[in-house]
Amino acid sequence: MVTIKDVALLAGVSASTVSRAITGDVQVNEPTRLRVQEAISALGYRPNRIARNLRRQRSETIGVVVSDIENPHFTRAVRAIEDAAYRQGYRVILCNTDETLEKQQAYLEVLAAEQVVGVILVPADAADPTVSELLDMKIPVVAFDRRVDDDRADAVFADNRDAAKVATTHLIASGRRHVAFISGRANIQTGAERLHGYEEVMSLHGMDAIVGVGDFRQDTARLAMLRLLDQHPDIGGVVVANNLMVIGVLEALRFRDVTVPGDIALVGIDEPAWASLVQPALTTLGQPTQQMANRAFELLIERISGKREATRFEVFHFQLHVRDSCGRRQFDLSH
């Protein structure tokens, strides 16, 4: 293996001069820099990035912490972030918290110890003091999908309340009554906002809310839907608060021989890749996940490079995709 000493010997300089030339030190004059570059090319030398980062006391790595890697929404976001990071010379450390504060704190501590230059975080707990500790260490944080309590962190998220309002309004406008809602976790911003949007529309139309708690999990949603079918046999429609829970709801409906959309119309919030492939095709509220992820990375780079100090909160909007699970009809939802 070619070493930095081999390059130094061929270029006729010291190893420290080679190191400074590689890192772009202005104290290395141009003729010396050219000799070092020629020696590197001739020998096929590849600098040890890890060792160089340790000497700099700075990594070229960012941390990406998601709450549930099995959720296709976060899987797509991670892919977009990793692609963007790689193109700009950064590497990604991926962590999954399973929506638990303990794992979130543990991983954020690991990322700080690894000297990452920034973190994109889907917070399991918005009040986690570890986030503030990172910011105190001058490690920028961009919250994705949900905000955090420390207002020094940027945030990129979607208008969840409006998505639930559009989904619920669409079912009511199609003539469905006794519309139920399978909710996520109410202690998480995404879950709370989607539940509030549903409740707002039901109240506006003088209807009682029918809520089953699915915790953003497939199995929990299946059980919640089965309970609602027992308690409210007259349910005519259901809004499901994320794509994993849609699978559980469909399993419950199939188990009870409930037809979609004949007996119950269904709208899911989030747009899984399989939405148009199932029978019946799934009506969804899709958020622009890739654009959101790209923007989160851009905000992080602005912080890392020192181009911006002011905090940014950026909100994206869902799009209604009408398919067969609630009847292929588009209604005027402006009233």
Mean pLDDT figure: 91
Uncertain residue segments: 53-57, 330-335
**Radius of gyration over alpha carbons?**
26 Å
Structural class: alpha/beta
Task: Please report the number of helical segments.
Answer: 12
In which order are the strands of the major sheet placed?
Answer: 2-1-3-4-5-11
Question: Strand fraction band?
Answer: 15-25%
Helix content: 40-55%
H-E string? HHHHEHEHEHEEHEHEHEHEEHEE
Oligomeric state: single chain
Amino-to-carboxy terminus distance: 71 Å
Overall geometry = elongated
Task: Please describe the biggest sheet, giving its number of strands, its sense, and whether it closes into a barrel.
Answer: 6 strands, parallel
- DSSP E strands, number: 12
Would you mind describing this structure in some detail?
The protein is of the alpha/beta class and 335 residues long. It has 12 helices and 12 strands. It has helices at 4-11, 15-22, 30-43, 49-56, 72-87, 101-113, 129-136, 160-173, 189-204, 218-231, 243-255, 289-304, and strands at 61-66, 91-96, 118-121, 141-144, 154-158, 179-183, 210-213, 237-240, 265-269, 283-286, 313-316, 319-321. A 6-stranded parallel sheet has the order 2-1-3-4-5-11, sandwiched between helices. It has a 6-stranded mixed sheet with strand order 7-6-8-9-10-12, with helices on both faces. Helix 1 (4-11) crosses helix 3 (30-43), helix 5 (72-87) packs across helix 12 (289-304) and helix 10 packs across helix 11 (243-255). The longest helix is centred in the first third of the chain and has 16 residues, at 72-87. The chain starts with a helix and ends in a 14-residue tail after the last strand.
